[in-house]
User: Fold these one by one.
Assistant:
Number 1:
Amino acid sequence: ISITQLGEARRALEEPLFADLAGDIGISFEFFPPKSEKMEAQLWDAVRTLEPLAPDFVSVTYGAGGSTRERTHATVARIQRETSMNAAAHLTCVEATKAEIDQVAEEYWAAGVRHIVALRGDMPTLGQPYQPHPGGYENAAALVAGLTRLHPFEISVAAYPECHPESGGHDADLDNLKRKLDAGASRAITQFFFSPEAYFRFRDRVAAAGITAQILPGILPVSNVAQTRKFAGACGAEIPAWMDRLFEGLDDHPAARQLVAATIAAEMCRRLYAGGVKDFHFYTLNRAELAYAICHMLGVRAKPAAEVAAA
Ligand code: FAD
């Protein structure tokens, strides 16, 4: 972040809380495919609650090792068919041949889905070093190139403000991001992070590398630090000590934890906004209320049903 940006950010931070957020924010949401009827009901409750906020798109994850291939497809296709929202399908390279992955992508195209979040993925067993399938796409950049050969998909890829754990450092990570964008992706969505400064430093490095694509910050509202820490280590995100302190003594107070979670995430978005960020991607974990509350604090309001349907 430059001195000027720092000055601007500081000035914005001195303004009254959330008072300067006035309807120029773009949002998107991530869901995961449900495993049971109960989870399906919860997902659709979240989808219907968040739909009036008119997100730019919503995405649905692909289980480790491609384990949710059918469920991801069914969820994405249904959102695309039955709601006013543009659905994006996550797709990974893990344990599949190119032909199999191309087939999945063809099915998305046939279902009217035009946006793919193209990822390498991780091995099904946690901690197992990544091994490309002998007949598959070797990494996300190769997958992006493969998808663009099939159809003119809109393609988003992953980015890591605090570095991907397997990368050889910031420069290698940035080279890899550049390869994915050069191959045909038009946007990067970041891994979650809890330090706006980490995002700003990453944004500066990205700009210095001549990358102009959107770097959409991924926002994870955390209401359970222990659970988040379990998977944060494996995905290149640090959980700061202040977060533990904020949740101390709240184990038996789930409602208070939710309020704290919303406050932390909204405050982080406000700081990002003060540094010029206008678009936010929320990891919802299929629960609407936290994301809804944060969007509300950011000045995002539900639109009338007719307006949402016409968009
Ligand atoms: P890549 O961009 O291919 O990079 C992986 C690593 O390999 C990096 O360290 C990179 O630097 C290195 N690398 C790549 N190519 C080369 C090369 N030629 N030479 C040297 N090094 C190289 N996972 C899922 O299973 N399902 C999901 O739905 C899912 N959604 C996600 C959404 C977002 C927004 C993010 C940020 C992550 C998501 N992930 C998902 C996790 C992701 O699959 C893992 O982080 C995975 O370990 C890396 O995927 P990638 O697409 O970033 O891989």
Number 2:
Amino acid sequence: IDPSLDLEDEIQRLKRARNAVILAHYYQDGEIQDLADFIGDSLQLAQEAKKTTADVILFAGVHFMAETAKILNPERIVVVPDMKAGCSLADGCPVDRYRAWRQKYPDAVGITYINCSAEVKAESDYICTSSNAEKIVRAIPEDKEILFAPDKNLGRYLVEKTGRPMRLWQGSCIVHETFSMKKIVGLMERHPDAKLIAHPECEESLLRLAQFIGSTTALLKFTISDPSAKYIVATESGVVHQMRKASPHKEFIEAPPEGNCACNECPFMRLNTMEKVYLALRDLEPRLEMSEELRTRARIPIERMLALS
Ligand code: 13P
Ligand code: SF4
């Protein structure tokens, strides 16, 4: 790339030339969020992808999100900045192992978190996101056993919230498991006026202390409507960008990880850069493609989720 290029201008120009829309998750770098036409949590991004009439969707997020966009709106060209932007939850649930698990409990209903591959979606009965998971669990008849995959932390939280026992796949998010309880408790002692807010992918010990738990959008909305002036935010740090923009007078403290790493940043989400967004729009590559057979099967449990949302 010519270093004299103004990437922001070029991306805006290409967006118009390609009739493209940029959908971004809150865990993207701030500069990518600022370029996006739409920012949302996993559910909102899926809904937006389904209804867009743009010719091209540039999905600034991770692979499973772009895949969901393609499943819901196959007529569009879906491009991503980096095809290697995966997810530890999706990686920890390979389809052959998931299928074998389902076969052990043939009468059970399979609810799967949207953070999984299209292949696993195709084997699931319902997809859910962190914002609608409780609703989906409650929609399953009481006499049915539920298999919940792949996030054990969200699963355990849902069991507690709904009182509904479920068999849990033992996966987790590498980002939401890095927070240091010791440091968080220390912060809470030093800032007794701050509220701890957390994403349900966090571990049980952290969720027990949290005063509010929700999806990225729910966390953002809470900080806007809640009267407090200070928050300790236990999720990927990207979302704090929008919190600060929406409430510049409030203070947001990122929940600290163990050690001195930046591991409250998702290494997959952060593979996306302005340069790669520019190249993806310029070249319309890399593109998300999948077989029609897989797409059709994976769409069914996602549509069931959307109907219940
Ligand atoms: P939500 O934005 O749906 O809360 O999801 C968080 C996440 O981990 C996405 O990978
Ligand atoms: Fe996956 Fe965790 Fe990254 Fe979200 S933050 S994409 S769940 S690894």
Number 3:
Amino acid sequence: IEKKQNELQKIELVENLAASTAHEIRNPLTGIKGLVQLLSEKYNDEKDQLYFNVIQQEVNRINTIVSELLLLGKPTAHKLNTYCAKEIIKEIEPIIHSEANLKSVDLSIQFAYDRLPISCVKDHLKQVLLNLIKNALDAVNENGGQVRICLEKKGTNCVIKVADNGIGMPEDVLNRVFDPFFTTKETGTGLGLVVCKRIVESYGGKIKIDSTIDKGTDVEIILPLVLDKN
Ligand code: ADP
């Protein structure tokens, strides 16, 4: 028991640290971003522009990492509300369709259920789904790539599934996907799935990954349904 308590304290410490440093980093970063933008308008020879582009890309990358760290900070501190899974997917539909179109990926969304009430922080669950869909889009080929999103009801759980027919994962990758900063991508942060797991578990849910090399990957978000009170 004592060991478990120690672990929990450690997690809490890391969460607090992540959230507070993330805020501290974000503010000066906004300043840098604005000034680089100004400078890039002033120095417009080709080579300078190249450098400015790199700076801007790197700043954006730090911003992404910081946003993910912020999400890692105490998801339980937010107030949970009840939403239907379908309405949350509906709200991110325009973004994911445009991302899929950019890569010419065939994206399909099936809403088999209208009413699957789940308890969550809406923006956080949206972020979870966006992370999973981004991974799916990264994993598929431009030719013949397919990403399927569907809703299922399994017992007293709502299952949101994101499936792709992409590169899949070998066992050693699959074993490490939830390790902070583990990534196989050149511009990855290795925090996407860590954030997903953290958020989903804070709702009493689970995340399950099934993957086969060269066949594809299925990721399931399993969330307890909010049962009717009557
Ligand atoms: P990132 O996307 O920044 O690398 P993630 O935590 O989201 O961070 O993912 C960690 C790693 O898991 C990825 O680098 C990739 O190797 C693997 N992965 C995640 N989703 C998929 C997927 N749908 N298909 C294949 N590999 C995946």
Number 4:
Amino acid sequence: GVGKPDKKVKTTCPFCGVGCNYDLNIKDGKLIGVTSNLTSVVNGRLTCVKGRFGTDYVHSPERLTTPLIKKNGKFVEASWEEALDLIATKFKEIKDTYGSDALAAVSSARCVNEENYIMQKFMRAVIGTNNVDHCARICHAPTVAGLAASFGSGAMTNSINEAPQCKVIFLIGGNPTEAHPVIGAKIRQALRNGATLIVADPRRIELAGKAHVWMQLRPGTDIALINGMMRIILKAGWHDQNFINSCTTDFDKMADVIEKYTPEYVEDITGVPKHLLMEAARIYATAERASIFYTLGITEHICGTDNVMSLANLAMLTGNVGKLYSGVNPMRGQNNVQGSCDMGALPNVYSGYQAVTNAAAREKFEKAWGVKLSDKVGLMMPDMFDASIAGKLKAMYVMGEDPIRSDGDAHHVRKGFEHLEFLVVQNIFMTETGKLADVILPAASFAEKDGSFTNCERRVQRVRQAIEPIGNSRPDWQIIRDLSNKMGYPMSYSHPSEIMDEMASLSPMFAGLSFERIDEKGLQWPVPDKEHPGSQYLHVDGKFACGLGVFKAIDHQPPAELPDAEYPFMLTTGRILYHYCLTTAGYSKHLTEYRPEERAMIHPDDAKRLNIADQDYITVTSRRGTVQARAWVTTDVLPGGIWMSFHYHACPTNEVTMGCGDKVTKTYEYKVCAVKVEKT
Ligand code: SF4
């Protein structure tokens, strides 16, 4: 055994957006385990295998412990002084030669709020560009855009702990059992309490087996399905006319568009038998209250933002928003992807979703930061790679992300990085992207620093330092502060709480936040003043953040790449229970032991035709790349479908996925691409 801990430090889990709290058990300055902390508001004693066993990556011998500078193609150890001097000089040189917009940064949904705030401030105030983005771009950016357009606020409307009390749950494009396990547990709790569950998913996920209605739709046909449900609801008179009249606008335009989505037409597009569609519509619309839960099966499509707005349409049509146990509830992916958006690590907004194009907002930040700010919306992440290849972007600063492994069409992303003049990568491990860097800066992990994460129900919670930074690593916020000082823009923060105070003073929706106030239970935004108790659910009584909720008229749009004779299968990617991102969980011995390699799901009919047996190695190839994995022959996927995760160094699935995405937010269409499959 590892013995008794010397101390326990309550903190927030660094993996998924549920935001469980638990105690890090510390002995002799080392993290030796995780135990429940019953004061945790979100999860109580619950955690999942990732939170419980996955944090051993913190002490992996592979951790980066000192800055590295590439000299003659090889990384050489360097002092902080030397590394930061070099970066400051190169950034200044590039800014002076090509202008501020020749630089860009990738901020991080893995880092604390304060680090995201300081990163976007660094890019905007010191470099002078709005070229800052992060991995929300590749997951829930359509949620932020779609829910903001429909409701005026791009976040989960309700709270995680309402789930067990829900009477009807409509789960679409999400597999919480594996990707958000504590929410999965709460949905199962609702079922034990007598709730009715509708699932729409192309795969037989665990909850599909427990659902009253499971609609196994073809990937990329969500809009048709939702429009079909809405048409049935309208024809049957199950809609909420009062809510529509008093709380929404543009209903008629939407109603016109859905007219053609007869159950037969919808069955043609989605493959869902019409009796199931009608049953789902009836259950959802006739419940006193019904709650929608979704995740990346909705957002990661070329029509991701439209998919999100379709769900908002459905909720408004039936008055299922603005009250307890209802709403539209995106389960955010990364631990702090809500927070990194909130903090303005996006090319179009400062913290608190204040637009860079809004003169009054810009002037406020100019005054506070003492500089002139750019009014030009910055580059989204996929555009950064294009701009680099086109010779317009010359330098990048990548914090806490590994785009070559996580973004669609890895080949193109790699090419983007290769074209840069200067690349700085700041991370806790060496990454694929890091291998191309000119300078590597070693960062501290979540266990080694203070700060806050914001979970998917908008709860800002404390992250607490439990051990000293490993080796010579430093918290990201200190690195950015020191770099800023080197570049001649003074930053004097001595603790992340000071960064939160500055952020709160400039962001009306977060004005009530402080480390003191979030200490015990966190606070759910909006929290507009220091007395405000936080907001359990949004749009109370149909009073939307934007005034009236907006119906959107949306038509079905097929995926960008459909199967053909050469690439006859449709690949979908997603998460599994035992893993998380490569740069943290990928270094957890415990998690790797549970499930050591990639398993690609394939239907038995297809496997038989291709002479593939369960556990055989197969090669999956798209127009962009190729990977190998072991076959998992299962009826859980549709014939013609392949399902893979993206959790393994030995099987980098994003070599295969698509480089194009949602027309509004550019979120890659990870859920559909055409591939061929061969026995290896
Ligand atoms: Fe961590 Fe998410 Fe698991 Fe909770 S459900 S322990 S936040 S990975």
